[in-house]
Amino acid sequence: MNMVTGRDQLSTTNRRTVLKGLGALGSAGQLSAVLATPALAEAVAETLETVTLTTEAGQTVRGSLALPQQTAHPAPAIVLFHEWWGLNDNIKTMAAELAAHGYLALAVDLYKGSVATTPGQAQELMGDLNEDDANDTATSWINWLKADKRSTGKVATIGWCLGGGWSLNASLLKPVDATIIYYGRVTKSAQDLATLKGPVMGHFGELDGFINKKMVDSFETEMTKAGKEFTTHWYAADHAFANPTSARYDEPDASLAWSRSLAFLENHMAQSS
After folding, report:
1. Nearest to 190 by CA among 218, 167, 168
2. Superfamily for the 49-269 domain
């Protein structure tokens, strides 16, 4: 989600005050307010733990981990994939939001520490993304979460824009229990989708000129051919409609999509399911 420049800086004391006042993010209205306010998103992001992993291919990669409030018992895990901007405070806030709902939430960094603040920078970072490195990063983090003693072993993926496509890619590389895609690239064949294990939920905007109905209709056709479970939701909105820092943000649709995502996760990530 887009990183806003010119953010206000908070002192350590003020950060503690802000976070105490926020409590669990919980409600959609509170979440959008935090995401739309750089200082608040920064304060929430700083509560996450930075974790480091040596991948199967020998890369050193980092992510941001948010723990659920109740840590005495293992929790299902969620892997979050960032937009083309990189792993910024908004994506970390989304991880904190999922942790508030009882998940072990890990926001991965596909850009190795780089974060864009302009569309030009984001385009360059996205263009420089090495697919093999990203595959290795995604699968290694999923394996890490499955094995972590704080995890039940159940893992879902979620991503927005660039990350929406990688949420699906990761699920094909390393089968997981559920996949959520926000307006991400879904150009996959039935053969590509053969390795998919869990159900897929997609959120798409009717005004989106790139991740459009033609692409999504083709994806649905291929999912049906592959015999995979999917749910598609369309909104009278544009690309990035769930990002409060975007000019195309649509609060009612973003709130509805998020409530659907949480219900989907609850349905498919329970220990007994």
Report:
1. 218
2. Alpha/Beta hydrolase fold, catalytic domain (3.40.50.1820)
